């Protein structure tokens, strides 16, 4: 962490504090009528989370989470990046869970970090031999081949060619040798639109587009959703069909929060909302592989994260839309499912909030009945290494449903815990009539709109059509209502963008937009060039009698005719849902229905003389079965067990040197070194201890100061 980042972190923390003082309650709305897709558990795998012998008890620790894709080194051995996690061996273990797959990290064949590339021929020989072994294994549970890992940090043109050229040669080699296996990339360490754009342009021009696009999300939850939107817009602008997205490393920017329920809830919420194909949890605490990405607190004990992912893994039926207080932020978020067969709704959530959360369930399916049982549970987290006894029930009681809606207030919530609200039907039917047939699932709201169709929108209160003032085609032209006149300025093309609808004026070819991202009542509605921002995206919800509401995703407010005007020229703006008919619209179809970067801290000139002086390093490291490194080792990782180095591709304990251990162990466990004994100037103090700076790097102030 650089000094600048540290300052930013403190600033962000301060900012969150301010926000939390000014708001009292956070509301998450679960729209049970708005389906996203079937429950997939897309986020249910991890990087190096499953290895040859850990977790040892597969049946009770791995299987219940319904694992999907684990990411593993093509080879795990002494001359590779990692001595464990061998893809073929792990795929064999995982084969006992139907549907669970291994994503193969080919770059991990190479030793050291960053990878020691030995030339293209040697590379193709290495991966060719892996492909032969993979085929000979007879296993079929593969997600695909990842050609390289974090090229933005680990690829050097001095390897003999630039990354794109390397990608192309490797891609062609794999296609020829194993034509039916998927190819995944570029696996950059953080989402960088320019980087992805030039990669896609090259790949399209050279006929080597990946089957699955991939990048890492390790530097902040608040930016993630905008990355997904940006990527989909890039595809469109380049004429590339939608590729499945794999976020094959994800973790909170604060890496010690790996697996924390409050952190994970937000990842899961956004992955589901944007229909991510797969995601693998990691920060990658180097000496702790096989812990399912810190869902396990130790090699054998479950952490709080494990129980949270169990809730997630237990989800069945359809995932439905959750509207969080703010998608593009660090605030509380979550994911929900509706299962019409088993007749329940499950909602899991967590993350920074003000201590009170309102969960609003809309469009509850009729099988839930009028008086369902609502169970509210939480699972508390102390840190990633603390075992958990599992969830506690906060309350379990009956609630009354009215108009298909239920509001549940949870108080005393905090940022680190995870929560679940489970609603089970009362066996009656809130329509007061017959029991619903088992397959009568809630209609998705999307069924009222044919994506790409042309519509006019008639306000229920005034009977007038949504249009653009003066038939203008300019940015910022005002949107109003006017007598239906058949002009194209009153026609709109509505397209499902995956994260809500885009509503484009036919005459102006501009999007229905809330001016200046307003999130306030009265924020004006205009047209503006489509830019993919959330103030141009709307949820469409059927409210019965053939009417809908349009909810702006950015503000959560509804499209509304100002002061219930019934006149021509009445202004259109946004207002909170008040149930009035000036917020209700009829859709009339006009066209014919178409058929870090993983720091993995920089190593490492491996020491050349292996020695095994087993009294020269930490006893805690030796106890775990590792050896001491040769003298003069480079520290690549520090934790409470001591300092770790790498020798011949294997982890080892660095020599016990007082000066390396003479400061706060919390600071060392974050991967920082101790400052020199004579440098006692404290630049910052936090819960980890006192921080100094040396050579532009943060360091822990020596205990001798
Ligand atoms: C639920 O409805 C029943 C019957 O209308 C009523 O007696 C009861 O007080 C209601 N419960 C709550 C919590 O509102
Ligand atoms: C939940 O909280 C909201 C406001 O925070 C309040 O309007 C509502 O009445 C509360 N509902 C219940 C059931 O307490
Ligand atoms: C979150 O709340 C639980 C109790 O509800 C508590 O045990 C835990 O320490 C809290 N965590 C934080 C970080 O406040
Ligand atoms: C609206 O928000 C988007 C996304 O955060 C931002 O890029 C854009 O600049 C904002 N526009 C205005 C006018 O503030
Ligand atoms: C092993 O390391 C210890 C502590 O550093 C040292 O005293 C001892 O001489 C070393 N032994 C050998 C055989 O190098
Ligand atoms: C002590 O800190 C100062 C100021 O950052 C730096 O110039 C100096 O090199 C440090 N001394 C050592 C021994 O690292
Ligand atoms: C058991 C289970 O549901 N696990 C799932 C994790 O996600 C993948 C992808 O959807 C499913 O195939 C697994 O079944």
Automatic annotation (TrEMBL):
<protein>
    <recommendedName>
        <fullName>CBM10 domain-containing protein</fullName>
    </recommendedName>
</protein>
<comment type="similarity">
    <text>Belongs to the glycosyl hydrolase 39 family.</text>
</comment>
<dbReference type="Pfam" id="PF14200">
    <property type="entry name" value="RicinB_lectin_2"/>
</dbReference>
<dbReference type="InterPro" id="IPR017853">
    <property type="entry name" value="GH"/>
</dbReference>
<feature type="region of interest" description="Disordered">
    <location>
        <begin position="427"/>
        <end position="450"/>
    </location>
</feature>
<feature type="domain" description="CBM10">
    <location>
        <begin position="616"/>
        <end position="655"/>
    </location>
</feature>
<keyword id="KW-0732">Signal</keyword>
<dbReference type="InterPro" id="IPR009034">
    <property type="entry name" value="Dockerin_dom_fun_sf"/>
</dbReference>
<keyword id="KW-0677">Repeat</keyword>
<keyword id="KW-0378">Hydrolase</keyword>
<feature type="domain" description="CBM10">
    <location>
        <begin position="662"/>
        <end position="702"/>
    </location>
</feature>
<dbReference type="Pfam" id="PF01229">
    <property type="entry name" value="Glyco_hydro_39"/>
</dbReference>
<feature type="signal peptide">
    <location>
        <begin position="1"/>
        <end position="24"/>
    </location>
</feature>
<keyword id="KW-0326">Glycosidase</keyword>
<dbReference type="InterPro" id="IPR049166">
    <property type="entry name" value="GH39_cat"/>
</dbReference>
<feature type="compositionally biased region" description="Low complexity">
    <location>
        <begin position="434"/>
        <end position="447"/>
    </location>
</feature>
<dbReference type="InterPro" id="IPR035992">
    <property type="entry name" value="Ricin_B-like_lectins"/>
</dbReference>
<dbReference type="InterPro" id="IPR002883">
    <property type="entry name" value="CBM10/Dockerin_dom"/>
</dbReference>
<dbReference type="Pfam" id="PF02013">
    <property type="entry name" value="CBM_10"/>
</dbReference>
<dbReference type="InterPro" id="IPR000772">
    <property type="entry name" value="Ricin_B_lectin"/>
</dbReference>
<dbReference type="GO" id="GO:0016798">
    <property type="term" value="F:hydrolase activity, acting on glycosyl bonds"/>
</dbReference>
